[in-house]
Amino acid sequence: MSKKAGGAKRGDGQDPEIKVVARNKKAGFDFQIEERFEAGLALTGSEVKSLRAGNANLADAYARPVKGELFLMNLRIGEYDKAAHFGHAPLRDRKLLVARAQIDKLTSKVDRAGYTLVPTQLYFRGGWAKVELALAKGRSHEDRRDAIAERESKREMDRALSRRRR
Predict the structure, then answer these.
(1) For 19-34, how does the pLDDT look when each residue is reduced to its tens digit (9 = 90+)?
(2) What global pTM score does this model have?
(3) Across the chain, which distance is largest between two alpha carbons, in Å?
(4) Fewer CB atoms < 10 Å away: N or C end of the chain?
């Protein structure tokens, strides 16, 4: 797991080897994102097939350290129809594949009050399932309002500047 390299966002069309499966759009609104990391996922065969079909939901998912390992909780990967009775449980905890030093660093930050690990994207890179995790702090209702007000004022300033240039 490494810090996001380069300036391109994942799945924005600039990197042809990345196929985005799911995004957590609410993460940027509900949390103040400080750092982003990439982690691999330990999956079963039917989970991979279901992900390739685009059957995943990151809405309530979060990552948590458990006994020196990172696990992704509440990631919903729908059942793969053709797997019959050899399928998987849609909401099981999935192990994240991360370097030991990175796990220790993230665990120490998550143990402090207010920090959490939120998945922002689920994608395939070079055939491997990956998840982008964000180290984030939760926003209160007032903080969300402030963020909206700030975004609106920036938009108004940009509009005023663009009118002035014409």
Answers:
(1) 888 898 888 778 888 8
(2) 0.71
(3) 65
(4) C
